[in-house]
Amino acid sequence: EAKRQGRGMVRVFDESMDESIRFRRQIEGGLSGAIAKGELRLVYQPIVARDRLEVIGFEALVRWCSPEYGMVSPAMFIPIAEESNLIHELGDWVIDEAVKTLQTWPGQYVSVNFSPRQFRRHNFVGHVVERVTSAGVSPKRFQIEITETAIFDDVERAAETLFKLRQMGFRIALDDFGTGYSSLYNIRRFALDCLKIDRSFVDGMARERESAAIVHSIIHLGRALGMEVVAEGVETISQLQSLRLAGCSHLQGYYLARPMDAEAALTLAHAGFLADADAASEPQASS
Ligand code: C2E
Ligand code: MG
Ligand code: MG
Ligand code: MG
């Protein structure tokens, strides 16, 4: 009896496996045509400086508007692209598009996400340099966002890549910081401009002393090492205020601004500051 039930369960499990594999294949197939068919878009989320909410950069985030599946989240399709060579084609499209948009802004940088496989690609440095500089863009306005996973399984090689990129003038940010396996020893060795505090810590700040303590530690670490610190996922005014008090230099999140299309980003880039957040009008003791 139990055996039969067990077999039944196995079968159900297998079917759902088939189902998910089929779905993956469909997404993979759809995605490979998506670039050529112009179904990818970039949206841009402002990164602002703490005091006057000056817009100093935008993070580029990819969207897939599929006629078949609707809006597909990058959280869904990037991991699938990452498992095939599609990630390179997709990544190149993202670089080109981000660089094109960047050229319309008066001075902000664009921050582009790179998955581990892109970062470990043969001659990654030469590849990115070529794409960015051939468009006439200064690497100083191009920030490369990587995660801890991208760098910590081959620390020596990653250190060399980051050093070269830094030498060329690129900005480097460590994304989702605190969720991976960075050791402080290696953080010190790497050439980094920016630490992005993962939004799970920002989210937990008000509820848990532990999250608040981690946020404070990252801010201090970043400052002590001369890095910019960006808090991701700022969703409420109280988070904004706590982060300001804690000395966090830069902020990003829905409370400040949602990711927006290139046209809206251009308007905001020219305005230069976020006008709307309540806290923006708060008098600053230091100024
Ligand atoms: P990420 O790089 O950590 O990007 C931040 C994510 O948090 C974005 O999700 C953004 O829309 C979202 N977010 C921003 N503010 C808030 C907030 O206040 N609350 C909440 N709950 N979420 C917020 P998105 O656009 O869905 O991207 C998900 C992930 O997909 C990114 O995480 C990044 O790892 C990856 N990704 C996005 N675009 C690209 C790309 O062009 N290339 C690569 N390789 N990966 C990308
Ligand atoms: Mg990112
Ligand atoms: Mg992040
Ligand atoms: Mg993330």
UniProtKB/TrEMBL annotation:
Keywords: Phosphoprotein
Top-level taxon in the UniProt lineage: Bacteria
Coiled coil: none
Record GO biological process: phosphorelay signal transduction system
UniProt domain EAL: residue ranges: 24-273
Keyword Phosphoprotein: yes
Record flagged with keyword Phosphoprotein: yes
The protein's name: Diguanylate cyclase
Protein source organism: Sphingomonas hengshuiensis
